[in-house]
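Exercise: predict the structure of this protein bound to pyridoxal-5'-phosphate.
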Amino acid sequence: MNPYQIETRCLQGGYVPGNGEPRAVPIIQSTTFRYDSSESLGRLFDLEENGYFYSRLQNPTCDNVAAKICALEGGTAAMLTSSGMSAVFFSVFNIATCGDHVVCSSTIYGGSFNLFAVTMKKMGVEFTFVHPDCTEEELNAAFRPNTKAVYGETIANPALTVLDIEKFARAAHGHGVPLIVDNTFATPINCQPLRWGADIVVHSTTKYMDGHASALGGCIVDGGNFDWMAHADKFPGLCTPDESYHGLVYAEKFGKEGAYITKATVQLMRDLGACQSPQSAYLLNVGLESLHVRMERHCQNAQAIAEFLQNHPQIEWVNYSGLPDNKYYDLAKKYLPKGSCGVISFGVKGGRAAAEGFMDRLKLITIATHVADARSCCIHPASTTHRQMNDAELVAAGVSPELVRLSVGLENVQDLMDDIAQALA
Ligand SMILES: *Cc1c(COP(=O)(O)O)cnc(C)c1O
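Solution:
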């Protein structure tokens, strides 16, 4: 399906211009599309034909970029969303609604945790959180008859735990449900979860994929392997008629390869409208074209900084899976052989106050609610992204009060070390 290596797909995947057509992905800045007859437009509304009629559902620029990410992940269908959060929400809500249950890794992005534990709980979807390092017995014990999905992050933000994707996929498939993996931090350059048994991959494209802090976005990719019809009783939304499309059954009409993304597009995007703008998709695509080059350098710089921090007397501990004494070193070797990502977390000696003082003294590395950017930045999760959590939840999420999350960028690595050294002095 993908004749070219991943580096080539970063540059040329998704959009293949015809003779005399624009070389760069064109920005189709149009909300609507013209048709010769009501009848031909009507066929699109019935999902009898593929085509564009309103950019809330689909737009050619966004589809070209989604197709590139689909090719990078090795999936069969993909869609862009307005943000990573909408991708996370749609990916779960597409198959788990009121009265359903989801098994979820406890070390996930704070925003996703809040969505699951608070907002989706109000919508009647219940989550059981399990530590990613749990035993298979503990994992299997978390399932209920109404469990519809399993969810985790390849590399958790900000805990940096590495998910044993095969273990989670085995448990999910043993209970007849798909595994959804948030692959934001690893990116498909460093890990392709679909190859390890995940069924659906989500991204905050706001992070490394864009890479330049210029456009919010998200993406959902379906691996096309999960057999919805084999578990039709669990997934009525995909396996029974949708009256809003004249009784069409997604899993029959679009098969394993297309049912999930088609349903998410024509139901969730239609009704909730969290679409990405063509301008943002264009910027995302520019980022994707250098993703493979950037990820390699992010990992090199982060490895050097992690080793520097580990040897620094003011540093209590360093968490980076590229360090041989890290708990996730072996899992990272297996799932992330090219490197993990540019994000490191560490504890400054002296607790919360020392961490905050260190950050205030940084000159080159900026304090920003952002991560996975070409420019280095850092944040104190306990007082920002994770401040809604109580102490027990913070511990479960792997976030201690002295934890600093450093996103190592693409600057000269010695300049970064000098900045850290002066701020610790
Ligand atoms: C940032 C992030 C999200 C949310 O993405 P937004 O684009 O900010 O909405 C989801 N998952 C992970 C792992 C993230 O880092």
